[in-house]
Design a protein that fits this description.
heterodimer; A: 583 residues; mainly alpha; three-stranded mixed β-sheet; 5% strand; B: 435 residues; TATA box-binding protein-associated factor RNA polymerase I subunit A (chain B); TAF1A (chain B); SL1/TIF-IB_Component (chain B); transcription (chain A); zinc ion binding (chain A)
């Protein structure tokens, strides 16, 4: 049987001493006497048999035999992406998004995409394969539309298969080969894995849901939204192997910037009209979003009114500014979450200056004032908000959270339970490695005595927990007062801190000028950099991006001359000495 | 395992000197880097790193931290998470992963409280077969582990399987490893022979005797082959000589030892001379021969412990001229800090000096002392030494003081310490016989 494959190996078996080896299904050597399996695997896979099969199949007309194994059917890569989108939509609906997300918005976007890129719903589809798909008995609604599309196409002759037979041997889907050339991918605007998230983000934005892009990526990271190894859940009929792996396998969770860029591109491709307006009652509006972030970082609620003043002053609360309109050429696609964070930072700068001196002086004054004002010792301690106390509470919690995040990332399993075989010639090696990994893991698990599961975290929009509970990160400072930051001069209250600093607000003229944060970082005050670090950890973006957004807000706030100053505002700010730390 | 690693390192690094071809030497030296430095470059985050690689880098960092803090349970958990890197599609990272998991895995298993021999065996078997670069090394380590835990036969079996392994063109490091495997095969045969010898000594069982002899034959063939090649083969030489002595083949043993010690191709090895000396002493060779061997040893390692014996041999020798050589030998010995507080050495010095005084050779003493006076006074005769010796080792104090007196150093502070205890011993001292 297998003598020709095992004839080179003539070592005696360790258990029984006989020399009679055969090859198992998993390409492992086993002894015929005692069925002892050893680690040696077949070294050389005979590839010629495959080529022979190809030649034979091109002669016969019924060439679908080799692709239809055990009831599998032909499928296109876009079907796979459709399935993935379905799973992601279901997960999001499960997390609390309204059901129209799945049935209406995302589905419409997807149909529109297929139509515009001429992969379906069109009279002249781009794919040149036969699209006569054999529907299995349980025809799902998602596959029904493909048959609709195929009815409208011209039936191609079977000879079309012979040229493409090669590709279908190397992949489960029919058109995986098209996805591998970058030129084709770009010209036909083909789908890829980060674009699925981008589509979800656009759909969420359309519905003005509270899940921002940062939240979406955090949910992906926590595996609450299927993204890594989602192809495990493809149905059995969709045979998945070979080059499909390259399209559907992910080894990175895309960064915020990447998904944002893809979303912008998709909005262009889809030629979407203006999005529904972002009004002040929807959760994406900076006023409400900043309230959420204030609670997240344990800042007092009184700060919110100041943030709203800043929003007003910089005219960032206007619908026309906040709403995304892809049809207009100059419309900007905003980073809502970064914006809210930047507004908070600017407000803190207004209050405390954050130049490594003023904020600590003010905290000391706050503590002193509190000591004077107290007549009896209250259990809660001081009532005044002191930046120092806030820092001493938040910083250890932040370091612990960073550590936890790092360890979570270290333990993350990337490889799926289903083994991916990119090419047949590697099959034996890949299977063997998978076996070795599984054996190693099981032996170490028995050693440690437990199987440490990835903790399935309950989905929560907050990453820190402030309060008196046992597992909270620290005491809550939400109720503290900001009275010491304001002083009465005559009838109005003014900010105690009268100075403000900012970096260079001039826009760079060069197109490819990215950001100057890395040059500036060493000259910025440490408190400011720490604050940037806090928000960059919360939103899973880089500090440079947060800083860029802060500069944007400052531009709108400080450089706009046309905003008329309103009369009866209580907190007037004055442009003090501007210490510009630019070069 | 640490000393095995060191031994492996030493054997391997000295094995490098086998090749007279220097270019090969350089290539080999470049290839065999110490394992610690292999992965230090990957500690920083790279800009275009995939999430998978980032996870594996963070995992490795977590393993390292856990191991340095001796949290073995945690380290084992992170290592099982790290094992997913074996499936990395990047080729060079995947081969690194094999080595990392092998080395870290064995380290963790060694220290973990729940680890058993089966875990070690399983790990070694799996890592042997993933990736071909490390097969020979892992086989060696596996057999050493079995050897240390007393499973001699298993170790032998492992090595014999490994010895017949070939993959592709044999690279230079591979051939070194295979040579070592061959050598340890022979060594293990010797160990088994030794076990059989001690068990068979009473009974006159023919079959076990025959087995013992067959092991002897196997071992001797292998070891002869190995020892014939230039290199440092201390344990192998000793075992071969032991076997030959048992079978009363003195000439062969002597030949082997002499070849090992005097052959110019072999790297210079003081142990070779020590073994030869011990062998000859066992077989009651004439002192002249012993002296000649020790002379070479003295040139190589003046601070060797056998130098005392050498000194006594020289003093008692009838050959003229040997006596004069004994003084520099013992002075050289005491130049080294390891013999500072050794009573026997100081006694030896005292003896030699008294003999010289008797024979009227004080000028030689004076010569030697002139060279050494300045640093000996600070090395042996400071007030600190006096205090320490008077507290810890009175006899040493006395002997040193006598030596100082003989050298003519009466005024040193050290003597004051000895005069405190001098009194009661004074009479005895004068009656002391000089050997």
């Amino acid at each position: 049987m297998d003598e020709h494959l095992t004839e080179g190996y003539s070592e005696p078996c360790k258990q029984c001493g006989a020399v009679s080896w055969a090859l198992s299904d998993g390409c492992q050597f086993f002894c015929r006497n005692c069925h002892n399996v050893i680690e040696k695997t077949q070294d050389v896979v005979d590839v010629s048999s495959f080529i022979l099969n190809n030649k034979i199949s091109s002669i016969s007309s019924s060439s679908r035999k080799k692709t239809r194994r055990e009831g599998g059917r032909e499928w296109m890569v876009c079907e796979g992406f459709q399935f993935i989108l379905k799973l992601q939509a279901e997960a999001l609906v499960g997390l609390g998004v309204c059901p129209q997300f799945k049935t209406d918005v995302l589905w419409d976007f997807w149909k529109r995409y297929l139509q515009i890129t001429r992969q379906a719903y069109t009279r002249s589809p781009v794919n040149s394969f036969t699209n006569t798909v054999y529907l299995s008995s349980e025809s799902e609604p998602e596959s029904a539309f493909l048959s609709e599309a195929s009815d409208q196409t011209e039936p191609m002759s079977a000879s079309g298969h012979s040229t493409d037979g090669r590709s279908s041997v190397c992949s489960g889907s029919l058109d995986a080969a098209c996805y591998l050339s970058a030129k084709e991918r770009k010209s036909r605007q083909l789908m890829n894995m980060p674009r699925t998230l981008a589509l979800c983000h656009l759909a969420l934005l359309w519905l003005r849901e509270a899940i921002t892009l940062a939240d979406l990526l955090r949910l992906v990271s926590r595996r609450l939204i299927p993204y890594i190894n989602v192809y495990e859940e493809f149905p059995e009929e969709m045979q998945f192997y070979g080059r499909d792996a390259i399209i559907f396998r992910v080894e990175t969770i895309p960064s915020y910037r990447k998904v944002h860029g893809e979303a912008l591109q998709m909005a262009e491709i889809l030629q979407l009209p203006a999005f529904p307006p972002v009004t002040s009652d929807c959760l994406l509006h900076p006023a409400l979003l900043s309230l959420r972030y204030l609670m997240e970082v344990n800042l007092p609620d009184e700060l919110h009114s100041l943030v709203c003043r800043v929003i007003e002053k910089s005219a960032m609360g206007k619908e026309s500014f906040l709403t995304f309109n892809p049809s207009k050429p100059k419309s900007t696609f905003l980073f809502y979450d970064l914006q809210a964070a930047a507004l908070i930072i600017v407000t803190m700068k207004l209050l405390f200056k954050l130049d490594d001196h003023v904020e600590w002086t003010l905290s000391r004054k706050a503590v002193k004032k509190d000591d004077q004002g107290k007549k009896k010792t209250s259990k809660q301690g001081s009532k005044m908000f002191s930046l120092k106390a806030w820092y001493m509470t938040v910083h250890p919690a932040l370091e612990r959270a960073r550590q936890r995040e790092e360890l979570f990332e270290a333990r993350r399993p990337w490889k799926s339970k289903k083994v991916l075989i990119p090419a047949m010639k590697h099959k034996a090696v890949v299977l063997k490695r998978r076996r070795v990994v599984e054996q190693l893991q099981s032996s170490f698990h028995t050693l440690t005595g437990s199987v440490p599961e990835q903790q399935s975290s309950s989905p929560s929009s907050f990453q820190f927990l402030w309060g008196q509970e046992e597992d909270s990160d620290g005491p809550s400072l939400h109720h503290k007062r900001l009275n010491c930051m304001l002083e009465k001069r005559g009838k109005e209250k003014w900010l105690v801190n009268q100075a403000y600093w900012h970096t260079d607000l001039k826009r760079c003229h060069k197109k490819d000028c990215r950001d100057h944060y890395s040059e500036l970082k060493h000259s910025l005050p440490r408190m400011y950099v720490w604050l940037l670090g806090l928000f960059s950890f919360l939103l899973r973006v880089s500090e440079a991006q947060v800083h860029k957004e802060v500069v944007e807000v400052e531009r709108r706030l400080l450089l706009r001359k046309a905003v008329p100053e309103e009369d009866n505002h209580k907190h007037r700010k004055r442009k003090g000495r501007k210490t510009s730390s630019s070069f | 395992m640490d000393d095995i690693e060191a031994e492996l390192g030493i054997s391997r690094s000295v094995g490098n000197e086998d090749f007279s071809d220097s270019s090969e030497d350089e290539r080999v030296a470049r290839k065999i880097r110490p394992p610690i430095l292999l992965h230090s470059s990957t500690a920083q985050a790279r800009a275009k790193e995939s999430g998978f690689h980032e996870s594996s880098r963070l995992c490795l960092k977590a393993i390292r931290d856990a191991m340095l803090h001796h949290h073995w349970q945690e380290a084992a958990q992170y290592l099982s998470a790290y094992s997913q890197t074996l499936e990395d599609t990047t080729v060079n990272k995947q081969s690194l992963a094999c080595e990392i998991i092998w080395r870290l895995g064995t380290e963790i298993l060694q220290h973990h409280p729940n680890s058993r021999l089966e875990d070690f065996n399983a790990l070694y078997e799996q890592m042997k077969n993933s990736g071909v670069k490390n097969y020979a090394k892992i086989c060696l380590e596996h057999s050493f582990h079995l050897l240390l835990n007393g499973h001699i036969y298993d170790a032998k079996r492992q090595l014999s399987v490994a010895a017949s392994w070939r993959y592709g063109k044999q690279s230079v490091p591979q051939s070194l490893d295979l040579k070592l495997i061959h050598a340890y095969c022979g060594f293990l045969d010797y160990v088994i022979w030794h076990m059989k010898k001690s068990s068979v000594s009473e009974a006159e069982d023919n079959s076990s005797n025959r087995e013992m002899h067959s092991y002897f034959r196997q071992a001797s063939v292998t070891l002869q082959e190995i020892i014939a090649q230039p290199g440092v083969w201390d344990p192998f030489v000793l075992s071969y000589v032991d076997m030959l002595e048992f079978y009363n083949d003195q000439e062969e043993a002597l030949k082997v030892l002499q070849n090992y010690a005097y052959n110019k191709d072999y790297p210079s090895n003081p142990n070779a001379h020590v073994y030869l000396y011990q062998f000859l002493k066992r077989h009651e060779a004439p002192p002249a021969k012993l002296i000649s061997i020790l002379k070479v040893l003295h040139h190589l390692v003046p601070s060797h412990e056998l130098m005392q014996e050498y000194c006594y041999l020289l003093v008692n020798s009838v050959v003229p001229g040997h006596l004069e050589e004994s003084l520099p030998v013992v002075f050289n010995l005491l130049d080294y800090p390891s013999w500072k507080n050794d009573l026997d050495t100081w006694n030896c010095l005292l003896t030699v000096m008294t003999v010289f005084k008797r024979k009227g050779l004080q000028h030689l003493i004076a010569n030697e002392w002139k060279q050494r006076k300045d640093f000996w006074l600070t090395m042996h005769y400071r007030a600190y030494h006096g205090r320490k010796d008077s507290e810890l080792n009175r006899e040493l104090l006395l002997v040193k003081a006598k030596v100082a007196k003989l050298l003519g150093e009466h005024g040193i502070y050290y003597n004051k310490f000895s005069t405190e205890v001098w009194g009661p011993y004074n009479v005895e001292d004068k009656k002391r016989k000089i050997v």
